[in-house]
Please model this.
Amino acid sequence: MRNRLACGVAAVLTATVTSACGGGTAAAPGTTGGADATAPPGYLALADGKLPAGGALTFAVHIDSGAATGLDPQLADVATSWQLMSLVYETLVTVGPDFAPKPALAESWETPDPKTYVFHLRKGVAFSNGREMTADDVVGSLKRLLAAKSVWRGQLGPVEKVAKVDAGTVKVTLARPYTPFLAALANVPAAVLPMKEIAAGSLDPAKEMLGTGPFKVQDHRQDVSWSFVRNEHYWDKGKPAADSLSVTIAPEEAARVAAVQNGSAALASLGNVDSAAMLAGAADVKVATQATTDFYYLMLNSRNPKFADPRVRQAVNMALDRKQIAEVALGGQGRPTGVTPAGLPGACDPAALPSAIGGAAKAKELLAQAGAAGLSFTLTIYATEPAPAVAQVIQQNLQQAGVTVRIEQMDEASWAGKVYGKAPAPFDSALSWFAGYADPGMVTTWWNPDVAGFNQGFMRADKDLNALIARAGETPAGPERDKALAEVCAKVDTDSQMVPLVTRPATIAYRADAVSPSLYATEGYGNLLRLVADARVKRG
Model:
């Protein structure tokens, strides 16, 4: 399952609290009606700080962290891993509800010039073993990440030097300006590790987790369960609000829906858009849609003879009706997108892309020109909803262009092995999704297979596209960068090796009588657990 950062497989989770459950109302399905009316802008819900701390939270996720990469956050390449590891590990900076960088382990920073970042470390931070975090831990962690065979290393950009200035200050120097740098530091793979213990050999981060975060691991059984308890050394006093957190690996969504209905679960993230309708009328259940920058994309294997000709790939791209995918497969909650995620500042307009003016008729013409009339291929997907629904709309769209699509549905581990396990990859096409992150230029990095690595088995590098991606990364935020990103979008669209489709919203259900959670209205890193340290258990 290595190099699954690209697919960002959805973590579906529920939370059970040790409390009694009462009556109430449910939000209308398919809307953002579950949002707390008292929540501030940028939030779906904000935990009630007047409730007493304590209590137990129990979560169930549909898939565990990637077993192949172990527990090392620098190698974590799936969103599920990021969620779970974020309970233990922290980064220098984080992001707020507006995607702006916020202090975390660095309480402040300066950029004296576009290539220099000076971080002032927070005082009083300790790892869960009680040892104080130092500048050496920060420097060592970043150097280790830069030297690692990690997918996330490519997101850090052209880092030239990492140095300790003094006990509380770290300086990072870039070879050239890189606008997404702070956003890249905000994700779990860039977390600060206990480098003293790693260097001494007393800790193997692939097998054991030791961080500065609100929780520490008590027990883990791969693909079965996690148990977390409060980190008594946590620097943010009063957090976490809950005493403990248990995670059960529970793949069946129907069971999660039933648990929320009957009150045995307090919080659930749902993959099937129809699940919201099933919860309509359930007592004390709120259902809300969390927007995300994540998006589905279609991989057309250019190393496979069927898709070696760019005209064939372009024809498939033109035949796709993204609005229909969003409406039918995602219940109207998704949005058509280009490679820069819809909703982020500076994102390109997907309606202005070359494929948007094509349609089935133009697709047929291109296929005929390429000698590929009557094209038939297999679309490989994982079984988790709503991927099958997205695939079915794609199948119907392409049928209108005379293309026959056979859908091959697999469990996620088998799917990952087929898509990412070999080079050249043994598939025709595949469906997955990317986490869209907090900067519109970040995810474009994965369209350079020399940097991404995970897609070298099915994607050929394009030097012109790589140059456009690099230029957009160097350009400061503003109109010039927006223009540079639009050029990347257009080039990705005509290249059509990895084809952006629609954004991937998260449907969230929670029992208002059992838990008071904090939830951002929009999430960029696929992490519903981002604010779990704030959650308050309601105990009757």
Summary: Residues 479-495 form the longest helix (17 residues). Confidence is low (pLDDT under 50) at residues 1-33.
